[in-house]
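If I may wish for something, please walk me through the protein I am sending here so I can picture the backbone:
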Amino acid sequence: MSRPRSPTSRRFSPIGRRIFPTISSPSSRERPSPAVRRRSPTRTRSRRSRPPAASRLAAAGLTRYEVSAFARPGAASRHNLNYWRFGDYLGIGAGAHGKLSFPGQDRILRLVKQPHPGRYLETAAGEERLAERREVTRRERIFEFLLNALRLTEGFPLALFEERTGLARGALLERAAPLAGRGLLELEGERLRPSARGLEVLNELLAAFLD
């Protein structure tokens, strides 16, 4: 006999959800041949697993606003939206990552703090607190921006791309045009976004922007 739902579960109404398709990896002995792998069984399985979940979330009033995130109107994660829009953020604590932009100097830095808590505390007051300090080159910026921004179903304004990367939109649009022709990207006025098909093969779409 099934147990009755508790009053708490009946009252609970989530404002947001993340979903990730579960993909089983074959062992090395069972790994398919290259010809079989080209048919991308994991991508097919991922496509099959997403629509039922998406339909259930939509029925509950949650809208897909990112490749794996759903939320009620006005409840999208502000922290994640800043990250996905290539905004800056501070990394505080051991192992924390941060991103800082200096538009006047045409520089973007990625910073990583010391991962071990003891080492982090020992070096917290000096430059040694950074385990990594890397400058994002102009050549890398298109891919790094899109790696975040194309996760959003609404895409992004071209002006935001220029503001956050310091690059002209022409460099992006030239590379985006063939993908729009294949139905993976949509350009509407001043906004570029992934198509529904593009979202489902997002890794392939992004790989096209790798140098």
